[in-house]
Every structure is written in C-alpha cells, then in structure tokens.
Design goal:
alpha+beta; Arc Repressor Mutant, subunit A; 45% helix; globular; disordered N terminus
Length: 271
C-alpha cells in the first residue's frame, strides 16, 4: 500500500451510534461531502460523492447545491470541485492556534540554516496533521503541506506527540489503530513501538530512518507551553543519501531543539 492511499481514502461511514440529542447529523453529512474530495480527484460527480459518503444521491445533491451556493464548491455542469473558499475552514483553526503561526517563522529560519524542510504538527486520533511547514525541496513521493495527515506511529513528530501523551492515550492508540508496513524498516509491533515511545519520552526526541518512505529520515522534538504541556512537535526531514543518522543527531538535533526553545520563549512572551 502506498502512503498516499492510506490517508486519501477517508472512512466516511455515517452510521454513528448513540450520539447526543444535540448532535446534528445533517452537519456531519455536509462535512463528509467536503471530505469526499480528499480522494485524490480534483472533481467528483454526484454519484461519486454519494458513493464516497454513503448517503443517497438526493441528499448528496442537496448538500452539493448548498455548498455551491455558499461558494465552497464549484461545478462544470456535470462534476463538482472544491473552491478556494474551503481553505477558510482550515485557516480559521490556524489563526486561532497561535503556536502554529509562531512556529512558522522559526521553521523558515531553520530551513534556511539547514537547507532542509522543517515542519510542525499536532496529534489527531491515529494521525499527525501538519500545522506549519517550510519546504526546502520535495524529498517524499507526496507533496506535504499544511493540513496533510500522516500516520503518527511511522513519523518522528507522531512518536514525539505520542510519547508525551497520557498512558491511556498511548495504550488506546497502540491497541485501536491498524499499522501498515510501509518499508522494510517500519516498526509496527506494539511492544517494539511502546519501547520506542518510552525511549523517546526519556531522551526528548525521536528519529525515523526510512520507516515511512525509502530514502527519508527525520528527527523531531516537542514544543511545550509555559506549564510544560506538549503543544506541537517540530521536525526536520532529510534524504538518506545526503545526511547520515549520526549527522542528523549531532548537528541537526541541537539546532532543532534550539528552535523549539525559541518558539516556547515567544509563546511565553506573547501578549
């Protein structure tokens, strides 16, 4: 399985049991329609949207026409496609999450210093979501950007975020979510991952060596709030032919850690 396949075909099962009386199922379905366009196709027909979301064609049509009227989707008469206005939904989160805004400027400085791509992410269920990114070059087969999801267990940032999560969160994660073997190096065994997470919490950083994709290495550290709670993880990604694991730890890790401390200082001093 390709890593793109894993996170572009969302599970849009709408049979959600025992929701509260305040739960609005129509809103759930409307959001599912928007998420259907993450399948990798720029445009989808009415039938394709209905199939992807599991709702009737009549309901899918009403949602699509409403989104069309609101400016979130467009149509060429046969197919529907997302319009730029949908970005406002994600930007609202990013604007409200000042740590990502602060991290962005520091990642850009670090990218210029190291000549490598740097990112920030948060943990969301089984995945990490990129909340800030400064790209030096494209070293992965997928084009990583803000909003991109990747499996937490196979990423350096994901392991940092998991390692500093409460024990019940770690336990639930390891027991609940399926883990794909992306490369020969990917660690998927529960016991091995738990050991790695404990070591990560002890040393304060995590490194991935070609576990998510052949030829890609990365190292990550946490960024904490003034109370010591981990807010995000930041990392630097390199190509294995350019940077060894030894250099990644001896030269890149200190600079990455320094960037994390600078982000924390800015958070502490923000108005």
């Amino acid at each position: 399985m390709n890593i793109t396949d894993l996170h572009t075909e969302e599970n849009l099962d709408l049979e959600v049991p025992e929701k509260s009386k305040d739960y609005i199922r129509s809103l759930e379905r409307g959001l599912a329609v928007i998420r259907a366009f993450s399948s990798g196709s720029r445009s989808l027909t009415l039938t394709e949207v209905a199939n992807a979301t599991g709702i009737s064609r009549a309901s899918a049509r009403r949602f699509l026409l409403t989104l069309l009227e609101l400016g979130y989707v467009g149509s060429d008469g046969r197919s529907f496609y997302l319009r730029p206005r949908v970005l406002e939904l994600g930007q609202a989160y990013l604007r409200s999450e000042s740590v990502s805004v602060i991290a962005q400027s520091h990642l850009e400085i670090l990218t210029k210093e190291l000549g490598e791509s740097c990112s920030a992410s948060v943990l969301d269920d089984a995945d990490i979501i990129y909340t800030a990114r400064s790209a030096a070059n494209r070293i992965m087969s997928i084009n990583l950007a803000v909003g991109q999801r990747l499996p937490a267990y196979a990423t350096s940032m994901g392991r940092v975020l998991l390692a500093f999560s409460p024990e019940p969160v770690i336990s639930d994660y390891l027991q609940q979510y399926e883990r794909t073997q992306f490369t020969d190096q990917t660690v998927t065994a529960e016991k091995a991952l738990l050991s790695i997470l404990r070591e990560t919490a002890k040393q304060g950083w995590a490194m991935i060596d070609q576990e998510l994709e052949e030829g890609v290495r990365s190292i990550a550290v946490p960024v904490r709030d003034p109370a010591g709670k981990v807010l995000i993880a930041i990392n630097v990604s390199v190509h294995a032919t350019r940077v060894s694991t030894e250099v990644l730890k001896s030269e890149f890790l200190p600079k990455l850690s320094n960037a994390a401390r600078e982000i924390e200082a800015d958070l502490l001093n923000r108005p």
